[in-house]
Amino acid sequence: MKTLVVLACVLMSVYAAEKYNSKYDNFDVDTLISNERLLKSYINCFLDKGRCTAEGTDFKKALPEAIETTCGKCTEKQKLNIRKVIKAIQQKYPAQWEELVKKNDPSGKHRANFDKFIQGS
Q1: Which of 100, 112, 13 is nearest to 59 (CA)?
Q2: Which DSSP state fits 71?
Q3: Which of 20, 52, 82, 110 is placed for a possible disulfide with 45 were both Cys, Cβ 3.0 to 4.6 Å?
Q4: Helices (H), the chain
């Protein structure tokens, strides 16, 4: 029985380590996407064209891997938030979205799967 409990704890810790930190799960995405100045600021951060907030820096670091793994390490809340933000960028700033894609997936290898993920909800 002890072995089973230890194994369960190890598996849970491995699973938790494979997810991104949940500290931004409650990030106010609705304020971000409704504020053009703020959204542009984040886009410029992601494109290395402007300063980044602490959150922007963290998001920027995770973006290439999130695209490559189709958000494989994202929590469910993070997946929802990413879909909202990306859809807003695609609708309001399509040219900048294309720049982001080229920067983070230059070969276009992950584009189709990531697009399916974004449209998934």
Answers
A1: 100
A2: S
A3: 52
A4: 2-17, 29-34, 36-46, 54-68, 76-92, 94-104, 111-119
- Which residue pairs, CB below 8 angstroms and at least 24 apart, start in 83-88? 83/117, 83/118, 83/120, 83/121, 84/29, 84/30, 84/33, 85/29, 85/32, 85/33, 85/42, 86/118, 87/118, 88/32, 88/33, 88/39
C-alpha torsion 89→111→108→100, nearest 10 = 20
Distance CA 64, CA 44 (A): 16
- Can you read off the two tokens belonging to residue 62? 């995770």
- Convert the pLDDT of each residue in 40-72 to its tens digit: 999 999 999 999 999 999 999 999 999 999 999
Give the amino acid at 98: E
| Stated pTM of the model | 0.80
The pair of three-digit structure tokens given for residue 82, joined into one six-digit string? 């990413």
